[in-house]
C-alpha cells in the first residue's frame, strides 16, 4: 500500500477513534465512519471490512505505542524513576480526560459474544501489558531505583485502578484528587524514600 493508502487508513482510524470514544463501540457504524471521513462506502471498504477490524487496529496500535515507549527508554538506560513519573503523569491526565477514553468501547467490544476474539482477546491485551510492566519494574529493581516488590501485584494495582477510574468517569463526575491519590500511592510503593517526590512538589 502506498503513502496515500497509509494516509487514508490513518484518517479512518483517527475519525473512528473519535466516534468510539463518543458513542462506545456498538453504536458506531461503517456509515458513521464514512460520514466523518468523507469517504464513500467503497473507499472505506477498500481498507477495512468492518468496525471490528478498525477497532482492533486502534487498540493494537495504542498498545504497541506504549510497549515501544518502555522498551526504547530502557534500552537507552533512562532512569526507571524518570520513566515511571512520565508514564504516571500521562495516566493521571488520561484518567480525567473522558473525551478520549475508549473504556466503554473496549468493554462493549470484548463483552459482545458475536465478536471473534480468537486472536485478539482482552486477555491477551492484559497479558501483553502485564509483561511490559513486569519487565519495566524488574528493570527498576535491578537498577536499585525501585523497592523490592511483586511486579505482577503492582501492575494489577495500576491497570485496574486506571481502567476503573476511566470507566466510572464515563458515568459520573470524578473528583480530580482521585487520580492524584492513586498516583501518589503507586510512587510510594515503588520508589525508595530517598527517591520519592514530595506530593505537594510533584510535577503531577
Automatic annotation (TrEMBL):
Swiss-Prot/TrEMBL keywords: DNA-binding, Transcription, Transcription regulation
Protein name listed in UniProt: TetR family transcriptional regulator
Keyword Transcription: yes
Organism this protein belongs to: Hungatella effluvii
GO MF annotations, alphabetized: DNA binding
Domain HTH tetR-type, first and last residues per copy: 6-66
DNA-binding stretch(es), residue numbering of this chain: 29-48
Database matches in InterPro entries: Homeodomain-like_sf (IPR009057), HTH_TetR (IPR001647), YfiR_C (IPR041612)
